[in-house]
Amino acid sequence: MRVALLTEGVRPRSPRGAGGWCDRLVDGLREHDFAWYVLAGTAGTAGTVGTAGTDGAAGTAGTAGTDGGAAGAGPEDAARPAIHELALWGRRPAGRAPGALRGRQYAAAYDRLVRALLRPGERSGFGPGLYRLAELARADGGLPAFLVSDRARRVLERVWRSPGADTSAGQPLVCDVLVAADLLEQCLRPLSAPWYGTAPGGLGAADLCHVGGGGPAALPALVAKQLHGVPFVVTEHGLHLREQYLGYREAPYRWPVRALLLAFFRALTEETYRQAAILTPGSAHDQQWQRRCGADPARTRVVYEGTPAVERPAAGPEPAAPTLVWAGALEPGRDPELALHAFARVRAELPAARLVVHGEEAVPGYRAHCAAVAERLGVADAVEFAGRPRSAADAWADGTVVVFSALSQRRPRLLADAMLSGRAVVSTDVGVAREVVGPTGLLVPPRDPQALAGACLALLRDGERRARLGRAGRLRAQERFAVEPVTGAFREIYLELVSQWPAFPAAAPDAGAGPRPRPFARPAEYWITDRRHTAPGEAVPAAAVPVTADPGTAEGTGTGTEGTGTDGTDDGGTADRADGAGAVVALSRGRMPAAGEAPDRAGSFAEAV
After folding, report:
1. pTM of the prediction?
2. CA–CA dist 587, 593 (Å, integer)
């Protein structure tokens, strides 16, 4: 199965070999062919790459490169999936401005999209406007030039200042129109990526798309589904829309611009959830947020983010002195002040207790502020600000009990890592804490130093209970966050999608023109039936007529395979076209061998099925 991984703003493979979520997914599903499509921050940040070829679309055809930045790459590096990169920020892609007629078509589609962002009663026009822009960009490649043109700015200004537009964040100024137009161009840049089409390297040739993170990374998947009928899966470990709302509070733009961009991300998220075949949030907490944004519960499945840390041995013996360990970014959201106030109460009961704080400051001057709080509480001599640890395992090993005092726990990864150490965990009951910790730790209300201190004292004074909860937490984390169950879940999801989606979506008839093709309407044995012994004058049964049309074409007859020049007409079903094994391998790749094409004998029967 050919799977396109779509990510934004990250290097898919760590140069130090640490391996991220995408790496673990690819390594665990080696039976599938993966290709990475990366929306990088700027050009060149995702490795040495090329562009995917297209069948008549704008852009240049080329060979997708692999991330081969490290010298002396071994066989494993040579087998890495191809990486296709598009710079999401910075200078816009080169392209000729559209002519007068095509410019009016661009303006009409852009007007519809902007109205969906600024007029509450016209939000349903976001999807049609988005897909129309993608169709026009695919036809002539003039979308980037149009989005930065004066015509696009005039469309945005006219709609923004028209009666009925949502200006609750303030009336837009001329500078707001200029800034918002540039930001929208960057957000819509994936619509003009040279990734669409059914040629090798195009998203139309993939069996499904897998979006990691949502946001602009979902735009290519939306276009691929609209143009080629390719289904897609969305995996979010931390909701993209929620992060945008948090990040734009400090964005260097005026409030009208922030409101417009947030409206774009909100509309994009709703369209993504509506069109996705399956949503796989990283926690039930994220699943609830997705439902609030319109996600269908029937198409939502929680798949935890697996971590190789489950193989790590538990932490060694506890320190001699009763020690609380706190780890995280030093910022108000993590609320280390709550841990300091609770520790002051613990110190009053256990004078030998200590507190070790691991982490770097995320807000300038916040570490000094926390040190001043410890000094004011009279516990500065027992509090150690240890900075960033060598590893998370070293941080948990420094303590007797692990403490989390955050006001919002959005991702389960840090909690799970602490539980894997075998240390007992005390956490504020926020976000994913109850879901991750469950009955294997102690949960307390946020901003309640007395409750937090009481839970810490209860564990510090009871070694047997502390050890029992530590072992139970480690087993719970190993069960939920192992890599194998995660890859197994996605293996089932991929097969389920392929079994329910048309095998040849590009060749499927339009609605009302006839029945849609059924992917598994015929048993696998049919495709390996050897017809070479059929007599020359013997007619082939109707049920055994092989598929001769190339599924990459919309009509399915009378056209050749794109980019090859091979005639796609049927010559009567001669026996020398392909043998049974070649037909199975070809079917696994989404098509049957064309007339005169040699069968593919590279794969075994088991791999083909």
Report:
1. 0.76
2. 8
